[in-house]
Amino acid sequence: MNQTIYKDNEGNAVRFSKIAKIEGEMPFTGLGIKYVSSGEETYYANNKKFTVKEGEYIIGNDYTSSIVCINQKQAVEGLCIDISAKIISDVAEFHDLNETDLIEFLLSDQFLVNRYHIKSTFLGPRLNEVSQKIKMGTCINEFQQNELFYTLAESIISDQRFVFDHLNKLDFKKTITNKEVVRTVLDAKSFIDQHITENFSLEVITSQIGISKYHFIRVFKAAFGISPYQYQKWKRLELAKLDLLRGNEILFTAISYGFADVPTFSKAFKQQFGQTPGLIRKSNF
Questions:
Q1: How far is the first Cα of the chain from the last one, in angstroms, to the nearest whole number?
Q2: Does residue 97 surpass a pLDDT of 50?
Q3: What are phi and psi of 28, to 5 degrees?
Q4: pTM
Q5: How far is Cα 185 from Cα 208, in angstroms, rounded to an integer?
Q6: Are strands 48-53 and 40-45 parallel, antiparallel or unpaired?
Q7: Which positions carry the signal peptide feature in this UniProt record (predicted)?
Q8: What span, in angstroms and rounded, lies between the C-alpha atoms of 239 and 185?
Q9: Same domain, yes or no: 94 and 157
């Protein structure tokens, strides 16, 4: 089953599929998103293999040559969204008048085709929301308005500006090397985000991405400006702050995010936010 939910003359489209077996070309139009809501799909995009599992998506553009392979016992549910080049350009230009280089990156053969997890991007939660609405049959009217595509484009711009900026920070001589490095650290960042409450060693991360610990630390710092440990700590404290604002207890929050005790958590929290956990928690009451 491959159902077209919405399609217009500008190149914007939304399709929902439920397929167990298929192998063939899978074009990306404008900026195209292939999201897997259940099951697993394999893409061969620009001669690189991407295994896209439940809760993940791959994104490409008109220059992306792609073949999709699905061979599962149960039908794989997926969402395909095409966002026109015009909408992408409009959104990028609105947010920053000097976005010419970013627009060229997004819509040319320089674009970094990659797989992402919905927990690690701005776009991810929106894709999950759209998918759930389609399954419940409650979103047809929403798709008849361009607002949806502009909202998705805003999330893509936020995510891809991050990729674009960090790709330009790397100074390896070959562009293809820079792209592989960015893919590697994005995979590592996604792994950390998905397991943010767990305490794991560098060996666990590097075994997932297939590089040495030293090389991983070096390229992560080159891309993001901070070490993997510093990123994990920053991310935990950001999430802990949100939990405290929701009224969660300080001790429970500290332990949930891997801190040994409240004093250790409080010290790190104050260093990052300039206030104690107690003051932050009280500020929302």
A1: 50
A2: no
A3: -110, 135
A4: 0.72
A5: 11
A6: antiparallel
A7: none
A8: 21
A9: yes
